[in-house]
Amino acid sequence: MISKIPERIGRLDELANNLWWSWHHDARNLFATLDYPLWRASSQNPVKQLREMTPDKLLSASRDRTILALYDSAIAAFDADVSVRDCWFAEKYAGRFSGPVAFFSAEFALHKSLPIYAGGLGVLAGDICKEACDLGLPLIGIGFMYPQGYFRQRISADGWQEEIYEYLNFEEAPISPCAWPEGCGPLVEVRLAGRLVHIAVWEVRLGRVRLYLLDTNVEENAPGDRQLSARLYTADREHRMQQEIVLGIGGVRVLRALGMEPCVWHANEGHTAFMMLERLREEVAAGSSFEEGMARTQASSVFTTHTPVPAGHDIFPVELIDRYFNDYWGLLGTDRRTFLQLGQADVSGASFNMTALGLRLARQRCGVSALHGRVTRRMWHSLWPGVKEEKVPISHVTNGVHVPTWIAPELYQLCEKHLGANLMRECDDEHIWDSIVDIPDAAIWAVRRSLKRRLIRVILDKAQQRWVDRSVTGEQIVAFGALLDPDKLTIGFARRFAEYKRPALIFRDLERLKKIVGDRWRPVQIIFAGKSHPADFPSKHLLQQAFNMARNRDFLGRIAFVEDYDMLLSRYLVQGVDVWLNVPRRLQEACGTSGMKASLNGVPHFSVRDGWWHEGYHGRHGWAIGEETVDLAKEDETDAAALYQCLEEKIVPLYYRRDRSGVPQEWIQVVKNAIRSAATAFSARRMLKEYTERLYLPAAELRKTHQP
User: Fold this and answer.
1) Tell me, what's the pLDDT at 623?
2) 65 in a domain, yes or no?
3) Spatial distance between the Cα atoms of 208 and 642, rounded to a whole number of angstroms
4) Is the separation of the CB atoms in 640 and 506 below 8 Å?
5) What are φ and ψ of residue 633, in 5° steps?
6) Half-sphere exposure of 602 toward its Cβ, with a 13 Å CA cutoff?
7) Gap between the Cα atoms of 517 and 554, Å rounded
8) How far apart are CA 447 and CA 373, in angstroms?
9) pLDDT (tens digit, 9 = 90+) per residue, 342-400?
10) Residue 184, number of CB atoms within 10 A of its CB
């Protein structure tokens, strides 16, 4: 509690330290109104903002009628949300769960102020936690508190990515030490290759949902072990396995120390699958045989895989498994051979695959889109050799995005005005969106233009700040977007840079692209953003190529690369560009949620029909690049030609075709269809309801039938 906050607004600190505020407009507006310059300077982090506000400023706020009205409204909504009983889960499934859902994930993207995420996996995990709060689903999250997080990105004058690691200032983040029950904590122990490692726990609050973050940076640990939780996704295999042991085995022990008894255990990707091993060990320790313990562990376990290519799965050499688990299979009541078979993905037995482990130890298994479910059943068919491929017991739940987090407030207010005040609570009901056709085209167009102007302003502010820092050249400033124009058709390509995502595809025919970008009457801009993994040098070269194109004078400053892509910049981009470009190699993107966020904001998707776009595309709310199947040897050539043709013949003409008042009416119909489709079929609300009804409830029921 910050002692200088006047009593009349005394719960500001409580509100700032509960990330519920981040997806509720009244609360965000409250902090922005308190001190707008500090709100911006803190990157919209109210914990930091309150620490830096002067006592006089806070005292003045406690007497300001406008601020007090915002404060009272936000606190009332917060109290109602945290304590209300008439939520979806309580209304439909009260009493069906004997405990919470324990959701394990290696990363959680919740807000820029807590940089413990790298990409889409973390964004999905964060959206699940937020939607669980909104639906009233009893869920607790388990992850890592990475003191150095991922990394800040700087682009050098020659376009090379430089990684900057900064220690998190815990006093300026929405976290607190875990509140342990009496007689427990504050440290939990796991054994790594014969030595004890101590784990501290931090707590993050998201309305009624709690997220527990594990941290090995405590003085009881050796220096090397203190660094175990320092960074996300290190390239060193042994370090990665140590992290996963701490997360999986340590995470279970943390929940036990907190006195929690989940009824469902959800492992989000293979990074967390050791969680199931620890629960199997508990079952055997309680008197079960190995086979009985397996059945009970499987019954209450849910496993989601997100990776459609073999190279993307965590695979450890058997030598490492022997070193760290040489006394563990005895605790399971089995032998080394049987233990290793749990993680065996092929007949060689030379490695231990974490996805194979997760699939074997969970009864409920799913991919993250309809197409990915099909690919996953084919990929893992060998685990069920006597079953036809289409009968492999892996289903799918297509990912979705948390609508209140990602929709622009201006667009939401416009939709709420025409569609009703219950829009957020019922956004997955397609009938609510029937009336979107009645929103005046000019009103939608005005909001879209406003959002693009805001994006361009943010990009210019970032470029100007870099110039003020005196660490860049004028050429870099242009490449960072200093010449962008809000009146031009603007395409966005923002995501983790990786070869399979083909960020350079649009540069395949430079002369054709120059004509598209440089058209005098119908110009086009392209904004790139994204980070490469520090150890992925091929993707770093692709990033450098995109930056060098932004420096190329032939493109007239209409190509930009915006550095240091994070959750806040992502919000501006998915809300502010006109078209969202996505060109992964076919069958290599499991889902891809950035296009959902863009569509939600009226930014039509322009993509290869992979991931979610395979099931989501219907021709009225975006465009497909190429055919569903192509000659893979000519995939780049074929898709690049289709991309250029669609831009030249469909997208650009449609955008610039205006009525007498300057409104592109046909374009706005695509915009409205995009919003409606994303908000209903691809919302986190729909997704989490499906998880609950198709996976969590069956797991909870199976758990009851397997009780000793």
Assistant:
1) 98
2) yes
3) 48
4) yes
5) -70, -25
6) 25
7) 10
8) 37
9) 999 887 778 999 999 999 999 999 999 999 999 999 999 999 999 999 999 999 999 99
10) 14
Name 301's bridge partners: 265
Q: What is the CATH number of the domain that holds 344?
A: 3.40.50.2000
Which residues constitute the domain of residue 592? 405-682
Residues 123, 173, single domain; the answer is: yes
Q: What is the pLDDT of residues 180-239, one digit of tens each?
A: 887 667 899 999 998 999 999 999 999 999 999 999 999 999 999 999 988 887 778 999
pLDDT for 426: 87
Structure tokens at 178: 């875990």
Tokens encoding 598: 């863009």
445, 389: one domain: no
Is 47 a member of any domain?
A: yes
- 538 phi, psi to nearest 5 deg: -60, -40
When divided into structural domains, the chain yields a total of 3
Task: Let me know: does 394 contact 367? Beta carbons within 8 Å.
Answer: yes
Is residue 621 within 8 A of residue 677, CB to CB? The reply is yes
Q: Name the packing angle between helices 274-285 and 237-257 (round to 10°).
A: 50
Please give the Cα distance from 307 to 372 (Å, whole number): 8
Q: Which amino acid is at 573?
A: L
Are 79 and 140 in a shared domain?
no
Cβ contacts of residue 403 below 8 Å, gap of 6+? 424, 427, 600, 679, 683, 684, 685
Tell me: do 385 and 291 sit in the same domain: yes
Q: Which two tokens stand for residue 495?
A: 């995501």
> What are the pLDDT digits (tens) for 557-585?
999 999 999 999 999 999 999 999 999 99
Same domain, 330 and 462: no
| Beta bridge partner(s), residue 139 | 101
89 alpha carbon, distance to own chain's centre = 23
What whole-number distance in Å separates Cα of residue 560 and Cα of residue 435?
A: 37
For 678: left if phi > 0, alpha if psi spans -120 to 50, otherwise beta; the answer is alpha
Same domain? 268 vs 413: no
What are the phi and psi torsion angles at 183 (to 5°)? 85, 0
**488 with 524: CB under 8 angstroms?**
yes
| Dist CA 211 CA 533 (whole Å) | 26
Strand pairing report for 301-304 and 364-367: parallel
Phi, psi for residue 151 in degrees, rounded to 5: -150, 155
Decide: residue 51, CB within 10 A, 0-12 exposed, 13-18 middle, 19+ buried.
middle
Q: Give the torsion sign (CA, 137, 142, 148, 152).
A: negative
